[in-house]
Specification:
The structure is a single chain. Helix content is 56%, strand content 19%. The protein is of the alpha+beta class. Among the domains are: 204-271, Alpha Horseshoe (Serine Threonine Protein Phosphatase 5, Tetratricopeptide repeat), CATH 1.25.40; 275-400, Cathepsin D, subunit A, domain 1, CATH 2.40.70.10. α6 (91-102) crosses α8, α8 (129-142) packs antiparallel against α9 and α12 (206-219) runs antiparallel to α13. The longest helix has 27 residues, at 2-28. The N and C termini lie far apart (125 Å).
């Protein structure tokens, strides 16, 4: 019995020696180029003690506690390998390897992808365009429905090239979303578009700006910001009729109405030609006839008055017809001293074609002077024009300022 056990021990020892020799022989064989350089992932994974393969039980079945540490370590090395591929710009291989690991570890894979996208976006902003476009091109070719990559690609293309097709992609992508995501990406889209509009304006690239805005209006025909910006761009190009056409649609708008009217006033001013208007001489002063909110009125020209004045008696008679807007009370210096008087805003005052909108008048006691005049015309009208009082011919000459 003892001899049998001894013989069995010798046989086992012989088998072990053969096994060790075989292993040493295998390790000494030269590795092929494929084994050395083709797969860094396998090199990393084969260095693990007790490494395991992703067999069907590991993919889908519950893992035993003894296998978990090796699986986590194996995953860490796989993720490091992916990061090395990303840093070395091996994006084709990266996409293939990432797709494989995402089947088993989607959370870790997508977290890593988010890190890459953040770095790609940062690189694009830092003008590292070639690397970013290479990554986006490879990734979008393999994963055609990847929203994040398509969004980054479209917004980058839009910001750098003002491409109309990039606008189309942005709107299509946002339209795919709903709920909170739709609101978030709509806000991003609008912010990106607004920034690009400001860039084109600062560069005075009015033609490109108009082309872009016209395309944007195809998607958002009632966007009043775009309408106003187109009108302003046409104004800058000197295409005044195109500008007026769009500005007229904004009159009455709660926010853009006043801005549109201001630009229309400027357009009207530029279209004016030199004109003369008869004066009415009254002692050393001169009277001029005009229209206040389309009502006839005669005012004494006072170039020393910073604001125009309405006689209190006349204002009380016509207040309901004028329907002015009260602005504030102000302290007014007069020949008789300082007085407190109300200021009202009127829709417009005009002398012929020369008009100033949203003009203010202070209402205070003036001599009725037999009703010949109803107030004073001050510099808050005259300053908008080049004017001259021709006392010999008794004419007020008005023309646009240069």
């Amino acid at each position: 019995m003892l001899r049998s056990r001894f013989i069995f021990f010798l046989l086992a020892l012989s088998m072990l020696a053969n096994l060790i020799f075989f292993i040493n022989t295998q390790e000494q064989r030269p590795a092929s180029a494929q084994a050395l350089g083709d797969d860094l992932s396998n090199q990393l994974l084969n260095d693990l003690p007790g490494s395991i393969t992703l067999d069907s039980q590991t993919k889908t079945g519950p893992m035993s506690k003894s296998k978990q540490p090796f699986t986590h370590l194996r995953l860490e090395l796989q993720l490091k390998y992916l990061q090395q591929l990303f840093e070395s710009n091996q994006f084709d291989r990266l996409a293939a390897e990432w797709e494989s690991i995402s089947e088993y570890y989607p959370d870790q894979a997508y977290q890593l992808k988010e890190q890459w996208l953040a770095e790609i976006k940062q690189g694009l902003r830092a003008k590292e365009v070639d690397r970013g476009l290479l990554f986006l091109g490879v990734w979008s070719a393999r994963f055609t429905d990847d929203f994040d990559v398509r969004w980054i690609k479209a917004t980058d293309q839009f910001s750098r090239e003002n491409r109309i097709d990039a606008v189309d992609v942005m709107f299509r992508l946002v339209d795919q979303l709903s709920g909170v995501e739709h609101e978030i990406y709509s806000h991003q889209k609008n912010t990106i578009i607004k920034a690009q509009l400001e860039t084109l304006k600062s560069n005075s690239d009015w033609t490109t700006l108009i082309k872009l805005l016209e395309h944007l209006l195809w998607y958002q025909p009632s966007n009043d910001l775009y309408i106003f910006e187109i009108a302003d761009a046409y104004f800058q190009l000197g295409q005044y009729q195109q500008s007026i056409f769009r500005l007229e649609s904004l009159i009455g708008h709660a926010y853009y109405g006043k801005r549109a009217q201001k630009l229309l006033n400027e357009l009207n001013r530029l279209s004016l030609i030199k004109a003369t208007f008869p004066l009415i001489k009254q002692s050393p002063h001169y009277l001029i006839e005009g229209q206040l909110n389309s009502h006839e009125i005669t005012l004494l020209i006072d170039t020393g008055a910073s604001i125009s004045v309405l006689s209190e008696w006349f204002f009380e008679q016509k207040k309901d017809q004028f329907n002015p807007e009260f602005v504030r009370y102000a302290t007014i210096d007069t020949a008789g001293g300082r007085v407190e008087a109300p200021i009202y805003r009127f829709e417009a005052f005009a002398i012929g074609e020369y008009m100033v909108r949203d003009i203010e008048f202070v209402v205070m006691a003036l001599s009725q002077n037999d009703g010949a005049m109803q107030g004073l015309l001050g510099m808050n009208f005259l300053k908008y024009f080049a004017f001259n009082l021709d006392q010999d011919k008794q004419h007020l000459i008005l023309q646009p300022r240069d």
